[in-house]
């Protein structure tokens, strides 16, 4: 196995010291001097990083130029986690270094070990100018990493509205389905909390203005409305319904948004969905109604609300079980690995 350059080249360690003194005005001069005296320009440290990688990552344009002029390899891909020099430059917010590397034909679509391209690195760091430059140089805005996520998904995660708008305006695929769904699913997942809930409307407006289909589904067949329902976000639910979200849409198990809300005990969602016209006795693949889903999940408050709204207590699923049967455990003794709660049975007996 080849030894690290820092161990077998006398000036290797000193070169790293010179490069890493990037907070000093004479860093590039120190680097130039060491290279003149024979330091190995592409020496690697214990993390497999080259001096050029450090210079690019720290945004030192002068030192980067010195290293490149001495033959540093801008195409190296064996760096930390497979990141290239361009990945490092994008993460440093340095437009000058990115411009320099692209002018030398650095691969704008190179991938690291996670499948990230430079455009994803720039997006994740929130650097609008670098992202704009990469797009102008032909970087693929729709590249996806190993999780199926694209730059748009990372832009939504980092809350950069200008970057989201830039990507959408340059053809980002808003309907790409990652592990967390489409761009709108991502927005709900990221911003369904009091600290960032206000951002959801802004993100959603950008997506809808770009032609996003509000009823597109994720890998489980769930729409954005279904996700908002499960997270009990009333403002998001209202926004989606006001923008023509399909309240009767069903997922791959034929669960409606109301089924999901009932099974999760989300009474705020249940109330709003019913007020907006959701079918209270809708059936899923098992012919179960939202009341049955609330029953098997032992969501007593949800059952209370549905019964007060005249949910059909006598409906039966495809095994002939009513809500009372399900509460008692007839036909199926467990649900999701846990016994049905006796409280459900007693409650339904009292109501019946």
TrEMBL record:
Domain of life where this protein originates: Eukaryota
Each ANK repeat, start to end: 47-79, 81-113, 114-146, 147-179, 220-252, 253-285, 286-318
SUPFAM superfamilies: Ankyrin repeat (SSF48403)
Pfam family, one: Ank_2
Keywords: ANK repeat, Repeat
Protein's name in the database: Uncharacterized protein
Species: Polytolypa hystricis (strain UAMH7299)
Lineage, uppermost ranks: Eukaryota, Fungi, Dikarya, Ascomycota, Pezizomycotina
């Amino acid at each position: 196995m080849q030894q690290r350059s820092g161990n077998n080249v006398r000036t290797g360690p000193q070169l790293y010291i010179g490069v890493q003194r990037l907070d000093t005005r004479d860093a590039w001069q120190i680097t130039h001097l060491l290279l003149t005296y024979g330091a190995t320009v592409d020496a690697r440290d214990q993390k497999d990083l080259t001096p050029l990688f450090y210079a690019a990552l720290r945004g030192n344009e002068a030192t980067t130029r010195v290293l490149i002029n001495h033959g540093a390899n801008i195409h190296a891909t064996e760096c930390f986690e497979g990141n290239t020099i361009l990945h490092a430059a994008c993460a440093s917010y340095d437009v000058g270094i990115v411009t320099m590397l692209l002018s030398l034909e650095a691969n704008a679509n190179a991938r690291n070990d996670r499948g990230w391209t430079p455009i994803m690195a720039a997006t994740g760091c929130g650097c609008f100018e670098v992202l704009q430059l990469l797009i102008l140089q032909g970087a693929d805005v729709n590249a996806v990493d190993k999780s199926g996520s694209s730059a748009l998904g990372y832009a939504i995660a980092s809350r950069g509205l200008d970057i989201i708008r830039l990507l959408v305006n340059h053809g980002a695929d808003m309907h790409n389905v990652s592990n967390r769904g489409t761009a709108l699913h991502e927005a709900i997942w990221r911003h369904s909390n009091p600290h960032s809930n206000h951002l959801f409307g802004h993100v959603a407006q950008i997506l809808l203005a770009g032609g996003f289909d509000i009823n597109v589904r994720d890998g489980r067949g769930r729409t954005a409305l279904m996700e908002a329902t499960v997270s009990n976000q009333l403002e998001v639910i209202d926004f989606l319904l006001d923008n023509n979200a399909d309240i009767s849409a069903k997922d791959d198990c034929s669960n409606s948004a109301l089924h999901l809300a009932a099974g999760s005990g989300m009474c705020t969602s249940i109330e709003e969905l019913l007020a907006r016209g959701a079918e209270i006795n809708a059936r899923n693949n098992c012919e179960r109604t939202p009341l049955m889903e609330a029953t098997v999940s032992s969501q007593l408050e949800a059952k209370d609300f549905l019964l007060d709204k005249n949910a059909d207590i006598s409906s039966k699923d495809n095994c002939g079980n009513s809500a009372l049967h399900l509460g008692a455990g007839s036909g199926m003794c467990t649900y999701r690995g846990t016994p049905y709660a006796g409280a459900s049975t007693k409650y339904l007996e009292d109501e019946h």
